[in-house]
Amino acid sequence: MDSRTYYKADIIEALIPKKDSTKSSVYYVKILVEGHPPLKTNEVARELDGRAVWNKRFMLPVDMEAQLEIKSKHNSIFKPGSRSLAKVGLDVATILRQPVVAVSQEIRLNFPSDDVLHYDASQRGYILVRLYRPEEPISEPISVGKSFSVLISQLDTFIQIVGVASQIHPFVNLAWQVVSSLYTIARDQLDRDKSIGELTEMMEDVYTFVDDIKSFPSRLASQEETIKKIMSQTIECMLFIQEYSGHGFCGRALNQQWAGEQIRRFTRTFTMLKASLNTGVGVQIALIAHRMYEDVQSIAQTQTLAKLHPVDMDDPSRPTCLPQTRSDLLFSVLSWAMNPSSNQNVLWLHGPAGSGKSTVATTIANITRDLGRLGAFVFFDRRMAARNDPAAVVRTLAFQLGEFDPRLGASISTVIKGTPSIRQSPLRQQFHKLLVQPLSESELAVWSQEGPVIVVIDALDECGHVGDREDLLSILALESVKLPPTLRIVVTSRTELDIQQALEAQKNICGTPIDINSPANDKDIHLYLSDRLQNIRSKNKYLSLPQEWPGHDVIDALAARAHGLFIWAYTACRYVENGQDLEDRLADLLRTDVCSNYESALDLMYTTALESAGRWEDPAFSADFRDILGVVIAAKNPLTASTIDRLNEVASVSRMRPSLHTIQHLGCVFRGSTNEPIHVIHPSFEDFLTDRTRCKRDEWFIDIHLSHQRLALQCISSLRANLKRNMCDLTLTRSGVDVKILPEDVTYSCIFWIDHVCKLEGTEESLSIVVYDLLVKHLLHWIETMSLLKKARHTIKLLMRLEDWSRSIQGRHQELCDLLADAVRFCQAFTPVIEQHPLLVYSSALPFSPTNSVLYQLFKDEISIPVVVGGFRDEWSPLLMDIPRPGGEVTSLSLSSDGSQLISTVARWCHVWDVISGELLIQGPKGDIAMTVFAPGGQLAASCLFSGSIVLWDTFSGQTIGQPLKRDQGAIYALAFSPDGTRLISGGQNCTIIMWNVQTASIILDPPATHTKTILCLAFSPDGMRYASGSRDGAIRIWDAASGRMVLGPLHGHSGSVYSIAFTLDSTRVVSGTDDKHVCVWDIRSEEASMPIKLRGHRSTVFSVAVSPDGRLIASASKDTTVRLWSLETGEELSHLVRRHKMPVRCVAFGKQYGRLRLVTGAKDATIRIWDIESVGSMGVTRKHKGLVSHLAFSQDGQRIVSGSLDRTVRVWDPITGQCLLGPLNLEQPVHSVALPADNVRILAADREGAVFAWDATTGVHLIATPADDPSNHSIVGPLSLERKWVVDSRTGTALTMLPTMSPVRSQASFGNCMVLGLANGGIVIIRFPDIPQLV
């Protein structure tokens, strides 16, 4: 610091000549004092009267003349180039020598009249300054503002030095932006902070390197890496100061103790960077990240995150912007990302095909990765199934963000452990639980203090088809606002209608179109063409092309034809590069017309490229081209040329020419090789080939339907040629197997053959025959292989799709339909087992399949599989899933509109379940809850309480929304939403029905009481025009939904309380269930409703009724423990479809899974069950005893089995046939143990009290028993044992099978290769294993 006299100077305003002023200009004053760093005001726009106003104060030395320069620049978030308007001198010493009385005075400094930019004679520009007389000499303080001004000036200079062609230019640009922004908003505040002053003074010292580079430009190359680190550290430091000062994303100042240590760390790092510059020695300097974490990601945490099954997003070959291109656009996006004042946390960058969106996205990802701020980078590709699946987006983002920040990773891992099936949950549920919820936890509140984290989502238009991505778009549009403001999401896509409609109107989304007609874009196209063609020239040195080749005129002509599209420029350069004569290729391009729109320009480019192949007159070449392109375009994942060739070979395609023989002539529109996947150069080329009106030639047109048909047959042929039992020569083990690497043609065919078949709607019967022939030979082999590929769960949905296809084709193949229906049930029942090991398809799933099933009958003669003696069951069980929830009876059930989620009210608590997996997703509000209902749409639910209030809550978070709805209704027992979800009706103890506006939480209708007793049930009609109510008074009333007026009723047909009511699909009938054991169907089309049709069959109170979504069936749940199904049309009970619980059934609802009708029931035993509607089989193994089987034993020769049960009986069984040979032999107490001694003439048993019994083994006559006859004295230990669910050879540890879901095993015994299991439900299962030497 120096000791001298300073004075205060306020830069008040300036008058800007009109002719210089434009609406898009901003102005500032730059102050130059010799020997001092330059200072500047903030930037302001010109007011209507021509003035620019600042009122900014500066401290200037008295003894030095100041030069004031007024400058203008274009008001853009792009990096500007400023220009000088005028310069005026300020000789303060002369002014202050004049005798004045005032402490301050205003000085008007006129612009010089000869200033070249001042050409409006009617005005004279000026700068108005207020000067303050100094009272005494003062010492110059450390000035943060001064240091910032120096940094800005040095960065301004350095930008001009490095130029846009430098790799470090984006970092310099961004550093300039963050320093300038912070200088504008926080300079005065920071001037009072000594520690920040010392830090910025250190940075000011570091930035003297700019002067050195300016004097010796050649030094830039050797110091570029260190300078890049300085820029990165400057950006981090400014983001820290931004938060420290309370002007950042957090909006409040940081903890001072932690901030002080961070300032010291930044200072040390800048000191080391300065030393590295001075010595010229590049050293390893760890840059300081403003982000606070230092934890190391644990292996266990990484493994947990991997359970999300994220999509692999590794693609190092993705192109990036050339250094000199797209600088304005990149700067715009990065400035938005770093700007905390923007309330928009999503930036949607959109433009036409080929405009360079993906290249920009990749470049942004790379820059932010270098800055340590790339949280996730997800990019879509329509040609790769994994990378175009909307269902995988959220979990892939969660995985990458969890890897990026270990704190977030730990929080996400907790969610995964709590909900293992989270990746099967609906997309909104995933978004909330994997992103919103972890980021809102208190442990991660520091995220808001650590500056921006960038997420890049590229090519959203290639993420599934329009219908597929609807949920994803809805989440981006409506849910992204719930994320922390520091999480900045950049999305790129074409301007597709569905994406535009979803994102355009959202306040938190910044829509940014790419203007392909802008001068900046045209300049970038010129630069790109020049760079690529120069590179081509250098690769062809023997052609001796001139240095300036191809010349500015040619570049201009090519750029005009590109019509602003980078893909045109890219394809044109490849076209030139792949030619023998470069000049001829350029001439071909220049002979084409300049088109009027970008699509025509692309079509002309692709036409020129294809015509260059020169073999289209050869039918064989044209046919090969269409065959290969058909596979490339129809394939769900890119395939290598060798894989395409193998698919051709197994399909016995007569043409055996290698694919590369054709592809080699089309290098300008293809990418790939023998061992690298073949791609078309851009999705727009695929669009061109599959649209006959665009490609215009039959030789080029690709019929996508025929391509899918051909590829489907190729995949089927590949499976027939390669699939077999035990594909990888495995041994059954309890530890499972790792993913196996199979040949690409086999892997692809396994995963995608059904996709290609199902694309062929309305196809001929011939294809169904081919599919059937494949499945009758290889269905189990295919399921095994899918398990090898860790895709066993995919088989369910794939087979359901194939079954739907088989029922829709012309000339329906009934055997195929039956087999597929059975295969779906097979995979539903056994996928949890098959996932454990692929060979369990044969050793567990097949043996335990129903003996009457199509699949079992087809494959039961498989060699060397276990046999369940007598069969495990005859038919498929109707019970698909049990969801037990201890704590009390299930009082209500409600399914979401899409059938994917279920809310149950159990013991006055409510829970949200995943219907497919049975996993608990979220717990709702706690309290005295009577019932809960889903609102249409599935995100909102309402719960009514016995206390008389209603709670609205979010089904994704479990959090309540707003204040409870309350009106003096007493206890509330019934709720119903209108079909559009905008209204809610409630009824209860005070006999009134209130209608609520869901959005405003206000009452719409509050009519007087009309029922005479408590209202127990309510229902809206599907058309929303009416609602119905049922009460303890035994009456049903129908109401007008608009006026609240009763339009029908009271309807009396029940003799007891009405517990449940439901409308039919056409809103013309009402179904009710009551105390009188009847289900009634009422016709409500006329005001004089007839007496109801009564459905009789229940033996006790009917608690709940439901109508199926297709309007065909009625379901009723009763206190008699049954759920009965009725035909709505005939009123007849479908007695073969009765479903049962152990206790009274309180509620029933219909739902759908993959288009299949399901029944969901809840009972007093707190169990929720999901049922198949059509199955007629028993729920479990046939009962051999009436009680739990407590003990089992083999005879010494293995020819008989004896069983004892809690039903107080003993029986003898044939282990070969499973038939009962003797019994029941009765005891007075439950049986504790049994035995067949070596003499084979007696049967022994002991009861729970220790009494011993004996019978003749042939006749069953009672014999006298002695203590020596206790069964424990005659027990034998067999070679097999049950370890959890695995049957193993207890001597060698060899696994033999894994038991599927069944009643719990309570007893077991074995002899040789046979094992018998006693079940809790009284069943006995005898399993005979293939002859194994050590067992026989």
List keywords for this structure.
1336 residues; alpha+beta; 5-stranded antiparallel sheet; 61 strands; WD40 repeat-like protein; repeat; WD repeat; NPHP3-like_N; WD40/YVTN_repeat-like_dom_sf
Fold topology:
Elements: E1 3-4, E2 6-15, E3 25-33, E4 39-40, E5 44-45, E6 51-61, E7 66-74, E8 83-90, H1 92-97, E9 104-110, E10 126-132, E11 138-139, H2 144-162, H3 169-190, H4 194-206, H5 209-215, H6 220-244, H7 256-279, H8 299-306, H9 327-338, E12 346-350, H10 357-370, E13 374-379, H11 393-404, H12 406-418, H13 427-440, E14 453-458, H14 470-479, E15 487-493, H15 497-503, E16 509-513, H16 519-539, H17 552-562, H18 566-577, H19 582-591, H20 598-611, H21 619-634, H22 641-650, H23 659-663, E17 670-671, E18 679-680, H24 683-689, H25 692-695, H26 704-722, H27 744-758, H28 765-788, H29 794-808, H30 814-834, H31 840-845, H32 854-859, E19 867-868, E20 879-884, E21 890-895, E22 901-906, E23 909-914, E24 920-926, E25 929-934, E26 940-945, E27 949-954, E28 965-966, E29 972-977, E30 983-988, E31 993-997, E32 1002-1005, E33 1015-1020, E34 1026-1031, E35 1035-1040, E36 1046-1052, E37 1058-1063, E38 1069-1074, E39 1079-1083, E40 1093-1095, E41 1102-1107, E42 1113-1118, E43 1122-1127, E44 1139-1140, E45 1145-1153, E46 1156-1163, E47 1167-1172, E48 1189-1194, ...
Parallel strand pairs: 12-15, 12-16, 13-14, 14-15
Antiparallel strand pairs: 1-11, 2-6, 2-10, 3-4, 3-5, 3-7, 7-8, 9-10, 17-18, 19-61, 20-47, 21-22, 22-23, 23-24, 25-26, 26-27, 27-28, 29-30, 30-31, 31-32, 33-34, 34-35, 35-36, 37-38, 38-39, 39-40, 41-42, 42-43, 43-44, 45-46, 46-47, 48-49, 49-50, 50-51, 52-53, 53-54, 54-55, 56-57, 57-58, 59-60, ...
